[in-house]
Amino acid sequence: MGKKVLIIDDEEDIRSFLVELFKDNGFETMTASDGVEGLELLKTEKPDLITLDLQMPNDTGTAFYRKMHRDEQSNKIPIIVISGVAGKHLAIKKPFAIFDKPIDAAALLETAKSAVGQDG
């Protein structure tokens, strides 16, 4: 069974793209359209990696990060920020990586594998 990735992004096309990319490469995926849904999934699914958009309705990526980081069970999960927002490097403390939209799929996949300890 593959490593689990929680994809949090309000853009349906980005979520679909990431689901396909990760599933095609042996990952399990789950998606959330905002930080509120993301926190609910985080409690029940225990992902190995999170991809996080910063600018979303209801609960921003930054707010999600602050909430998840308070929990000892989830604050060690690597986060890859995927956003088109300026200043994204300041929004999250110590993300595993930061990617701009549009996404470089090959680089993202390599980074995701590195984050969860998979070779190749």
Offer a quick outline of the entry.
The protein has 120 residues and is of the alpha/beta class.
The proportion of residues forming helix, as a percent range, comes to 25-40%
CATH topology: Rossmann fold
Rg over CA atoms, rounded to whole Å, is 13 Å
What do the pLDDT scores average to?
A: 91
The domain tally reads 1
Poorly predicted parts: none
The CATH homologous superfamily is called Response regulator
Count the E strands: 5
| Largest sheet report | 5 strands, parallel
Distance between the termini: 17 Å
Estimate the global geometry from the Cα principal axes.
Answer: globular
The H-and-E topology, N to C, reads as EHEHEHEHEH
- Main β-sheet, spatial strand arrangement: 2-1-3-4-5
CATH class type = Alpha Beta
Subunit arrangement of the protein: single chain
Structural class: alpha/beta
| Shape-level CATH architecture | 3-Layer(aba) Sandwich
The percentage of residues in β strands lies in 15-25%
